[in-house]
Amino acid sequence: MFENKFYQDLAVLSVNTAKLRNYYIPFPTMEAAFLAKDRQESENFLLLDGQWAFEFYASIHEIPVAFSEIPNTSLSKTIPVPSCIQNYGYDAHQYVNVSFPIPYDPPYTPYDNPCGIYRRHFELGEISERDYYLNFEGVDSNLYLWVNNQFVGYDQVTHSNSEFDVTPYLHEGTNEITVLVMKWCAGTYFEDQDKFRTTGITRSVYLVQRVKDCLWEYKIETPINPTSQTGVLHFRTPYQGEIHYLLFDLNGVKIDEGAASREFIIKVSNCAYWSAEIPNLYTFVMEVNGEYISEKIGFREFTIKDRILYLNGQPIKLYGVNHHDSHPELGPSMLKEDYRIDMLKMKQLNMNGIRTAHYPKSPEFYELADEIGFYVISEADIESHGVVNLFGESADYNLMARDEMFGEIIENRIIRSIIPFQNRASVFMWSMQNESGYGVNYEKAQKMVRKLDTTRLIHNERAAEPDLSRMNDFSNLDVISRMYASFSDVARYCEGNFDKPFIQCEYSHAMGNGPGDLADYFELMEKYPSYIGGFVWEWADHAMYLTDEFGRRVLGYGGDFGETLHDGNFCVDGLLFPDRSITSNALEYRNIHSPIQLKKVEGERVTLRNIQSFLTGAAFLGELSIHINGEKTGVIPIDLSRISPLSEQEIIFERPVVSVYDDVTINFVLKNQEGEVIGHQQKILQESQIRVPDILINEIEERNLIQVKQKQSCYILAGESFSYTFDARTGCFTQLKVAGEELLVAPSYIHLWRAPIDNDRYNMNNWRQAGYETNQWNLISFAITEKSAKVQIKGHYRLGKPGIQNILDMHIVITISLSGTIQYHFDVEKGINLPDLPRFGIVFPLKKLFDKVNYLGYGPYDSYVDKHHASHFGKYQQEISEMFENYLKPQENGNHWKTIEASVLGPVACQIRSSKSFNFSFLPYSATELTQAPHSYDLPISSAHHLSIDYKQNGIGSASCGHYLKEKYRFSEQKFQWDFSLSFLENQVMI
């Protein structure tokens, strides 16, 4: 039995760890400190990442030796560090959002607590008169440490550096480190984050060599005076000895040098300030007793005035994203280059802010944020969300927030999230926790943080749901923060009598096909100065690789790893796919948040607006162009250099001469200096009066030119080059034969159902109960009229489901011309007291020989009534493979909103037109197949290419974790009429 109980003791926060300090790496020479691009360039730094010996035990009590003998255990396997053990076949992945993964019984953990023993050898030369500090940047969930068979200490904050003075334990030659890591400890109750729960040494391990009398901790503040364009480097430390310092400007030119102790100030004239748009960094080097420390200094100052957030005297908005450490190959073990890849993609998508959800990052993340330029909300490693799932009245969100038994732990975790990163320019706000309630413990912590750091803002979103049993203290909070506030709530806050700016630390839940509300939130940010921005949930899907029953290496989400407690695919909720592939959702964000906005067009004047706070338009390249019916017809020269930050510019252009039947748009494409597109916006100058070909041609002779034959409820309608089979019972064609070629592999059908997107999760049960997925048509009356040059079918149908009222009452008129064109007219009334419709239209399951489509409408990405900014009105040709978005959890995708006309190409061309714009999709799977497949790799081999022609679809929204759609985006019509025509051309032509 394992006897050491540190891991189940709330009073043991750590054992024998070094005093907490701000992060830095010492260098042996001035030149090395000044020139280094990476910490590994320091001779005082020894990285211990790599292959470690390893042994896994399903229970802590299965370790075959006593606690003191753990360093002597034989380890037969290896594992990479950093990593999580679940990625290497030990234990199992588990994704949980809210619930604790263990029974709620703090500080105790289950008796069978899985664990691993790690061992690493490394070489040291002659032990000098120096000290050695062993650093673990993150271990999940705790660590016991031995060095050369001697117990050193213990720590248990997963996403925090654990530093140990190991000087007394080291010797010249080969040294040995042994680490015991458990899956659960008392800290588990404070780390109930929405993520895969993992175990192991998940971040880097390294040894740092220090001089005996070293500079340990210091703080740098950078007050500025924008009026005089000056900055101040204010340095403070408890260190008593002399500190030599040098300050270098952006070009590496020395601008100050001196020596001082404890506290000093350096004034900088003509100071180049730091911002996310222009991340200017000075280099500050300190020398103490032959040890050199380099800091990158961003002179900047965040302030709030009149509920507006200012940086360096300029108002700024936060266009941000929440970022978990998650990767399908690496799990939570993201290294510097992985962070860099993510950050550069964020820049390409016009993001300027990151919330470190829901724990501090490794130190190199913050250095990159300084360098690349981001406004960072750095969050403490605290989440106790699971208390809301306790039984009965025990389910109290504020349970741990107000129980003073947990107060010291909460304060400790918050301090550990701040001190290491207190000198980073990118950090503008400290977040106390995530989804852990509000109470006295956080009020004490906030007061402590305010004394610790007067230069940054303090955030606690749970103040929105305070402890109602007492008077709550919000005096040390700087913002009103909400998650997923509705549009009306945002307006209420911004128009109300509040004394703090409003921010959404999470909004626009980007799960699956979504979000659909980004543009509406952006409009509110533009409208209200006190709405300082928000952070989309979230950056990338969480999914981990596994080998399925067929031996395929596939991505899995909650429930795919044998978990009994899990939250399904709720982790697949990012703007990007797990491998960081860009999605149409991410491009939607990019275009909406374009740095230069195409604001309006009035007459012959175009207004562009620069929403950047510091960059002028000279930082970008732009093109304005006129398009008629999707074709570019002219380019309007623009000089963006004259657009100052937060200002507008008018451009005069000559409107083209067009007919009333033309669609005319003006497009604005924005690129960065490298030529990458970072924004594409469009305004409609004119919508055409759409003409439908008149298929009701005059009678040529007094005889029937279209033959009609009846076989029970089916009618065969045959012309010179076509033969159509129509089923009166369903109101649809079972076969379309043109030029001797049968086009359908299954009967066409009218559908209301869409494969539920993740944002439909709270609608789909109502939709199913209302009969939208499975139902039956009932023929009320039917007539077919044969004339010389056309056949007209009239049917009255009701759609129903046993046990409920009628879903739809539908009159349909189908007219077939001598040329074979089919014209539909629908007159539809929805039953009373039924929910919004998912969609309404007809599906034609075409042969797979039909494999591409030309269309005039919104493309090339899918588009919906509230999600269409990734796409733009134009003329497109695409393969069917390009029209399918392969979400890990299959769902509705590929729709094209506001289409004018489309032609599906195969053995013949199927041309679709309507008197009004319509929706269509062309996909290798049916809505039923997408609905039934739990994963993308569970989809069947495609048997047909499904052409869906729709009157309308319900909007997208972000209701998977937010509010329902605005009324204007809902398919809530009680009555509607719709018509379209379907023509077949033997010669495939472009539209």
From TrEMBL:
Molecular function GO terms recorded: beta-galactosidase activity; carbohydrate binding
Give any Gene Ontology cellular component. Answer: beta-galactosidase complex
- Keyword DNA repair included in the entry's annotation: no
> Which positions fall inside the Beta galactosidase small chain/ domain?
716-983
Query: What domain of life is recorded for the organism?
Result: Bacteria
The protein's UniProt keywords, in alphabetical order, are:
Glycosidase, Hydrolase
GO aspect biological process, one term: lactose catabolic process
Q: What class of enzyme is it?
A: hydrolase
Catalysed reaction(s) here are: Hydrolysis of terminal non-reducing beta-D-galactose residues in beta-D-galactosides
Q: Which family does it belong to?
A: Belongs to the glycosyl hydrolase 2 family.
- State what protein this is by name: Beta-galactosidase
Organism of this sequence: Enterococcus aquimarinus
Q: What is the lineage of its organism?
A: Bacteria, Bacillati, Bacillota, Bacilli, Lactobacillales
